[in-house]
Amino acid sequence: MSCGEPHETDCAEVLDHLYEYLDREMPEGDRAKFEQHFDECSPCLEKYGLEQAVKKLVKRCCGHDAVPTDLRSKVMGRIELIRSGQAVPEQPVVDPARTPRESGPRPTRPGAARTPGDAGENRA
């Protein structure tokens, strides 16, 4: 996304690093550039406001849930791999306290079209 106006800091860069800004995980110099950009660019300011509201909502609704220690360790390990530029393992991060879903047909929305193979139907 770009507003079409020239800025010292490009809209794409601001949006790519928006959560670093929101989480205060960037150097003060970069924060100052982003603040200047938000002063100049209403589409990015709007996106910032939306993401800030979502972040507050998630914190309010889910902020009290305890995170299993090993899940936190796995996520932090992935973050470190990404920051160091190394490849990220293909294994999904799962909560060991939750049991895997049973394999079988996936539920469909009411009124959704079914295709051969849904719910174990035989293909012709």
UniProtKB/TrEMBL annotation:
Pfam families per the UniProt record, alphabetical: zf-HC2
All copies of domain Putative zinc-finger, residue ranges: 11-44
Region listing for Disordered, in residue ranges: 82-124
Biased composition (Low complexity): 105-117
Protein name: Mycothiol system anti-sigma-R factor
